[in-house]
Amino acid sequence: MTESVKKWYVVRAIGGQENKVKNYIENEISRLEISDYIDQVLVPTEKVIQVRNGKKIHKDRIYFPGYVMIEANLTGEIPHIIKSVPGVIGFLGETKGGDPVPLRKSEINRLLGKVDELSVKNENVAIPYMVGEIVKVTDGAFNGFDGTIEEINEEKRKLKVMVKIFGRKTPLELSYMQVEKIS
Question: How far apart are the first and last CA of the chain?
Fold first, then answer.
């Protein structure tokens, strides 16, 4: 068979089921032996760290919720096969009864560049604190004291917290894990 021209398309999926849809499509590719028509199925994700109850939690967050990217040659029954996958709503940009619209080359380069950049960047920390916020120290010698955040050092992941001890303000350098928000 001659090499077919493959373009990138965006498949709309039910939110939260992007990985299921990706697995279903990959299973259909191998079951129906249509790997000549579909090259890649991609769910762009980024690695983030969330702080919950003083513990770091590593998570993969889906960068475009509700969307799955596929590189495919949509000829013959291929669009119908993809649309019939459980959790698939349809193709992005398709007019009712029309053909799916492929992404432009510039969009692909930007998205794939973003995907590569996100997989390389190993830890993107969502900083849960702001300067001026009042927090409670939960760990260390000053456990139980309340203080005000004066500085946030993102590189070291440290906070400079001013705590009142015996009527005097004392600066403490604490990690994100050693404090919690006071609601």
Answer: 64
